[in-house]
Amino acid sequence: MERSIYTIEDLAANESFQQYCTGRNLRDVDYWKAYFEKYPEQRPTAEAAKKLYLALSGNHRAEQYEKHLHLFLSKIPAHDLRVAHRSAHPKILQRKLWYAAAACIVLMGIFMLLLLFRNQYFQKGIFAADPAGISFSSKAGEKKTFTLKDGTIITLNGATTITLDPEFNVKNRKLSLKGEAYFTVKHDEKMPFQVETSLLSIKDLGTIFNVRAFPEDPFTETTVIEGSVEVSALTQPEKQVILKPSYKLKFRNAVPQAAASVSPGRIDTTSFIVTELKINTGAKTFMETEWVQNRLAFNDESFAVIALKLERWYNVKIEFENERVKAYKFVGTFENQSLQEVLDILQISRHFNYRKEGMRMIIY
Description:
14-stranded mixed beta sheet, three-stranded mixed beta sheet, Phage tail protein beta-alpha-beta fold, alpha+beta, Jelly Rolls, 31% helix
């Protein structure tokens, strides 16, 4: 279980935590109970977040807050806030003025709370307003785990966004992905779960799988842990690959090619590249999904590609002053180590230097 430092707003806007608050999803209830048992220092924050969520949302999404606020205001008779004139007794007038002032203060307080929470709800990158559907995002250097209404559990790696189709869980279970996410899918044959990147479509066939689709990376990758997925290129959806457990499919980002149906052992290098996963012998896990366990791993990757991972992992900008160094290749797994510690270890196997300039790391 990953440890994250949540704020009140983080929790109140987290769909899994909302299910815990209402008790509607037993899996979420069990998850958050276990989380607060392990990290009791987060309990006061959780209690405050629960009160905020139940008080402000009434278990509604943020986009409904303004509607309910207007409805609430419309129920207050206008004359209740008017001040009596000539015929009013001074004491009665004073009392009515006090009531009016109190009502205004309460209304202003409610409005400010709703406005504050609504702004944080949409702008903190937890759920972003999107005309095409609801978006879930993570910043560089952080991870987020949540449960969708269909029971699918998703973990986002850093600098990742997924956007649900407007008809999600109604007519389809489609979402788009930019970045990297780990999916534990609640299977439904009648309404299959589907992930779309800028180049590929990945359809669940009863699965735990990982998709990595950063546009700046050389490849989009799909890794299957359990079950299977059907992968097709958006340009040629009729040509498909059924990917089985312990296999990874790569598709080049730089120059999208026409898809071809292939199977492990018969690889078309102009389109899909299918390879068997390599096990990290130390942890007995796959290198491609080590990040889910908060471990940074790379296997015979160039420094240029590793730098992209380090940028998203540590929320820094990495620049090279020596082109030759970008081609260096490394193998390694790191856990709970700083960027400086990682670079110091890499220096043991290949010679290079680095310096820090603000939020930039210069490698030469």
